[in-house]
Structures are given as structure tokens and as C-alpha cells.
């Protein structure tokens, strides 16, 4: 019985929630995408704008999605805030649609039960 609190505490620390937007190396991604200095600067500026947008919306995204999308955004060494934000938005939309469908199913079930 005394081991249960230790096991639970260990499990909680194994999956920390990302409280801040991670720092991604967007320069590498921009260098891979474009071949001249001006385009690279434009790409980096775009990525910085995406990071700012992500910082504004960060807490509105589910912690599991933040962690998963962060891992996906940094895969293969190339990193992109635009891809990170897109992943989070898609995950959020999917979650919202699933919740709406669940609520609709529950409402229909309740209506049938009343008949």
C-alpha cells in the first residue's frame, strides 16, 4: 500500500506538461526551403510571426496535443512553427468535432429514452 503514492508520483513526473512554446531551429528549415539570403530572411520572419501567434494561443491548446505536435514539428531536424501551429489547430478541431458528436449522440439517446 505504501508504494502506490510513489508509483503515482513517478508517473506524473514522466509526462510533464509543456508550459511554454518550445524553441525550434527554424533557420535550418528556412535554409532547406529557399536558396537566397532574402528569401531565407523572409522565411525566418514568417516563422517568427508564427511563433508569436503560437505564444498567444498556447494555453488554449490541449497539453497532450502540445506535446505531440511539438515532437512532430521537430522531427528529422527540421523545425517549423507554422507546421506546429497547424498541427495544434487540426488536433483542436478534431477534438472539438468529437466532443460535438458525443454531445449530439448523448442528446439523441436522451430524447429516445424519454419516448
Q: How would you characterize this protein structure?
A:
The protein has one domain. Helix 3 runs parallel beside helix 5. Helices cover 75% and strands 0% of the residues. The radius of gyration is 20 Å and the shape is elongated. With 115 residues, it is an all-alpha fold.
Blueprint of the fold:
Blueprint: H1 3-14, H2 26-33, H3 37-57, H4 63-73, H5 81-114
Helix pairs in contact: 2-3, 3-5, 4-5
Number of helices: 5
Helix percentage? over 70%
Whole-number tally of structural domains: 1
User: What can be said about the biggest beta sheet?
Assistant: none
Low-pLDDT parts are 4-17
- SSE run: HHHHH
Q: Compute the average pLDDT.
A: 80
Rg, rounded, reads 20 Å
Number of strands: 0
Which class best fits the helix and strand makeup?
A: mainly alpha
Shape: elongated
Q: What are the salient characteristics of this protein?
A:
single chain, 115 residues, mainly alpha, 5 helices, elongated
Question: Brief overview, please?
Answer:
This protein is mostly helical and 115 residues long. It is 75% helix and 0% strand. The chain has five helices and no strands.
